[in-house]
Amino acid sequence: MELTQTWFNTKETSSFDKLLGFIENLPSNLEQFVDPNTSNLNRLIEQLESKDLTYNKVTNTFNNAKIIIDKNLLYINRRLKIEKIKNRKSNVKKERDKIHKAMVICGLDGDSLDLKLGLLNKLWLNVMEFIEKATLKIINFSDNGLVKLIRKFLSYLNSLLSSILSVFPFIESIKEFKDVLEGFFNIAEDLK
C-alpha cells in the first residue's frame, strides 16, 4: 500500500455521488494509519507491551468498521439499482432526493461540500508534503511535527464525519476508529 495523495476525488459531478465516493474510499484512506508499509503504529504498540493495546485488536477494530461501511454502501447501491431495474425511476429519484435533502440540511451539498472536501484534501496535502521531506516516508507516530499536522487533519476529519453522520449513521463505526487512532497519537506524545 502507498500513501494516498488526496482523500477526495473531484471528478464526480453530483454532491450525492461525491459524498458516497468519499465514504466508499474512507476505509482505504484510514488504512494508511494502520498498514505497516505506510505507518509505524505497529511498532508503537509493540513498545507499549500491553495485552489490552495490541496491533491485532487495532486491525480487528478497523476491519469491523470497514465491513459496516461496505455493507451499508452495498445496501444503498442495491436499493437504488433494484428500483431502477424495476423501472421505478420515480422511486430512485425519491430515495436520492430524500438523502440529498438531508445532505443539504447538514451543509453537505454544492459549494459547501466542495469547500469541506477541498479543505480536507489541503490538510492532507500538508501531511504528505511533510512526509515527503522526512527521512521515513511513512506516517511516523513519533515525529512531533508530523503528529501536529495529522492532529489538525484528524480534527477536521472529525468535524466532517460528524456532519456526514447525520445523513449516514453507519459512519459512526469509522468515526470511532478514527478516535482510536487519535488515542495512539496521544500515547506517542506521552512516550517522548
Write up what this structure looks like:
The chain is mostly helical. It has one domain. It contains 7 helices and no strands. It has helices at residues 15-31, 41-48, 55-85, 89-105, 110-133, 144-167, 172-191. α6 runs antiparallel to α7 (172-191). The longest helix is centred in the middle third of the chain and has 31 residues, at 55-85. The mean pLDDT is 89.
Helix-and-strand structural type: mainly alpha
> Whole-number radius of gyration?
18 Å
- Helix count, DSSP H or I runs of 4 or more residues: 7
Q: Give the strand content.
A: under 5%
Span between N and C termini? 28 Å
Largest sheet, in brief, is: none
Unreliable spans are: none
Order of helices and strands: HHHHHHH
Share of helix among residues?
over 70%
The count of DSSP E runs of length 2 or more, i.e. the number of strands, is 0
What is the domain tally? 1
Overall mean confidence score, pLDDT: 89
What would the principal axes of the Cα set say about the shape? globular
For this entry, give a set of tags.
mainly alpha, 73% helix, globular
Sequence-ordered SSE layout with sheet pairings:
Layout: H1 15-31, H2 41-48, H3 55-85, H4 89-105, H5 110-133, H6 144-167, H7 172-191
Helix pairs in contact: 1-3, 3-4, 3-7, 5-6, 6-7
In a few lines, what is going on in this structure?
The chain is mainly α.
